[in-house]
Automatic annotation (TrEMBL):
<protein>
    <submittedName>
        <fullName>Energy-coupling factor transport system substrate-specific component</fullName>
    </submittedName>
</protein>
<feature type="transmembrane region" description="Helical">
    <location>
        <begin position="21"/>
        <end position="42"/>
    </location>
</feature>
<feature type="transmembrane region" description="Helical">
    <location>
        <begin position="158"/>
        <end position="183"/>
    </location>
</feature>
<keyword id="KW-0812">Transmembrane</keyword>
<dbReference type="InterPro" id="IPR017195">
    <property type="entry name" value="ABC_thiamin-permease_prd"/>
</dbReference>
<dbReference type="Pfam" id="PF09819">
    <property type="entry name" value="ABC_cobalt"/>
</dbReference>
<feature type="transmembrane region" description="Helical">
    <location>
        <begin position="127"/>
        <end position="146"/>
    </location>
</feature>
<feature type="transmembrane region" description="Helical">
    <location>
        <begin position="54"/>
        <end position="76"/>
    </location>
</feature>
<keyword id="KW-1133">Transmembrane helix</keyword>
<keyword id="KW-0472">Membrane</keyword>
């Protein structure tokens, strides 16, 4: 069969069955990012004064929190990978003293769900930058709504709308684009050889 007649793995529906390597990879990635979240939270605290005049603009730095969902989905290419990665990462963060405590579990679930929706919109057939960025933007909107009720009930609809926009933009860039770049970089090293993401890169398709 010639390359012109082969269907690239990134455009085919993923197999339903999870392999052991898939599960282990998602969990390890999530734990690593959960640890990184604690450091990112410290960075966020330092940057907060920059947004004191217009607090919703702080959403521009929060998209990093759903990068594990994007990275896991792009590597493993299984429905549910994004959701699992975010929930695990959100579970690790409070164990390490994360400032938001158990509330991060709700955030993780919504962020993972948002990223899942991005890939689900294309029936889990495309594992590219577009669904990654779209899903990460959706995650930002869901997270903004969650935080409105939990942390900022006094905010006006205009404020929360701006927050949703900044969270969506941040998600698309810091999770969607950055996550896609991370996966491509890992693929170039050969670390993703057991996955379609690595084989795509080796075949010149990624």
């Amino acid at each position: 069969m010639t390359s012109s007649t082969q269907a690239p793995p990134r455009t085919t529906r993923p197999r339903g069955r999870w392999r052991t390597v898939d599960l282990i990879t998602v969990v390890l990635l999530a734990v690593a990012f959960g640890i990184a979240f604690v450091g990112w939270g410290a960075v966020g605290n330092v940057l907060q004064p920059l947004f004191s005049a217009l607090p919703p603009l702080a959403g521009l730095i929060y998209g990093f929190y759903w990068i594990p969902a994007v990275v896991a989905a792009l590597i493993v290419r299984r429905p549910g990978a994004a959701l699992l990665a975010e929930i695990v990462a959100a579970s690790v963060e409070p164990l390490l003293g994360g400032q938001w405590g158990i509330a991060t579990l709700g955030s993780g679930a919504l962020q993972g769900l948002g990223v899942e929706l991005g890939f689900a919109l294309l029936a889990y057939r495309r594992w590219t930058l577009l669904p990654a960025a779209v899903g990460a933007a959706i995650a930002g909107v869901l997270e903004a709504a969650y935080e409105w009720r939990l942390y900022y009930p006094e905010w006006s609809f205009g404020y929360i709308s701006l927050y949703a926009v900044t969270m969506a933009v941040s998600g698309a860039v810091l999770a969607g684009v950055l996550g896609w770049v991370v996966v491509r970089a890992l693929a170039r090293t050969g670390a993703l050889a057991p996955f379609a993401a690595g084989r795509d890169r080796a075949a010149g398709r990624g």
